[in-house]
């Protein structure tokens, strides 16, 4: 009934508009006029129907889910002002925090549309490490996959996805391509346990991960998980043959050489070795043999503490011996803005220099998930960060040594 009324109204509207149109528009440029008019007519009908649905679902039936879907559809439909623009929400390492990710997307203005999180004129960008450690990696992975498939998100691989790809991809003898260390193996076994009743789904998801890129070039900005080096990017750009990381390619990347170096430094960053006489232990009392560095800073003459970035342990404030400084390309000051994850910057700084922005707010340790709303600006602005925090997250209590009286 309603559809019939709309069709009749549209036909009458079309006839009147055509009759009143100037001769040089309706007759001499008839095909162009008709195409433009029909497009506007379809827009009008769709908008009218959505408005009716919105009144019914939001005001009368108070159906919140359908109400949100209506709002998202109307926002998408009325997005003419942004058709030639693209804004990005760069989302940090999620690490299996499914509920917190939904909370962040809501705060960023996304809504569920046909079961997929969508924004009328923005696109989410995941910087990798959206699995492991948290309670629902499977849920996060499915959400990211659906968003990427629908065009409402982009995603790249982090070191945790690479670990999963290597562990759950089998060689010709049925063994993992690479077996990680004990700690990473425990994390991956916990991830696999989420697929206990659906091993085929795990295999499907690992295959999908192999289709994701290792870096992105956006409008005036770059995205990589841990380290941007132009030569590395050129080397790894051709790894995705047939749109995925083939098993033979993954095996090749385990062979020592410039390609392996480029691949693993891109997803893990630059790490320098500790001197033999320096004993550093992290919060779990594990001895650390290397540390992450600020690869946008020239290392010569810097102290361990000044060059350190994203380490969960304190380093001494004396100069790093030159023999410990391995050669790596320092990110130029004139290079475009690059967004990174990986470094677990719960206490900051999230913007350590004018053209590097870390969006990893250390959700696993600090319970805080971050996104940077990038609008094409040339200067990074801390005001563009959006954070959400677990409601009941508590910082770990300090270890107090008992004194013997």
What does this structure look like?
With 405 residues, the protein is an alpha/beta fold. It has two domains: 2-77; 87-270 and 328-389, Purple Acid Phosphatase, chain A, domain 2. 39% of the residues lie in helices and 14% in strands. The protein contains 14 helices and 15 strands. It has helices at 2-20, 23-28, 30-60, 64-77, 98-107, 137-150, 159-168, 182-193, 199-209, 230-236, 247-252, 258-268, 304-307, 363-366, and strands spanning 87-91, 111-113, 116-118, 122-126, 153-155, 215-217, 221-224, 271-273, 280-281, 287-288, 290-292, 337-340, 356-358, 368-374, 385-389. Helix 3 runs antiparallel to helix 4 (64-77) and helix 10 (230-236) crosses helix 12 (258-268). The longest helix has 31 residues, at 30-60.
Task: Give the CATH class of the largest domain.
Answer: Alpha Beta
In CATH, the homologous superfamily of the largest domain goes by the name Metallo-dependent phosphatases
CATH fold node name of the largest domain: Purple Acid Phosphatase, chain A, domain 2
Tally of structural domains: 2
Outline the biggest β-sheet: 5 strands, mixed
Strand content: 5-15%
What spatial form do the alpha-carbon principal axes imply? Answer: globular
Question: What string gives the helices and strands in order?
Answer: HHHHEHEEEHEHHHEEHHHEEEEHEEHEE
Total count of strands:
15
Class from helix and strand fractions: alpha/beta
Helical residues, percent: 25-40%
Report the C-alpha radius of gyration, rounded: 26 Å
Biggest sheet: strand arrangement: 5-4-1-14-15
Question: On the 0-100 scale, what is the average pLDDT?
Answer: 84
Based on the coordinates given, report the CATH architecture of the largest domain. Answer: 4-Layer Sandwich
How far is it from the N-terminal to the C-terminal residue, by CA?
88 Å
Number of helices: 14
Low-confidence runs: 21-33, 75-84, 394-405
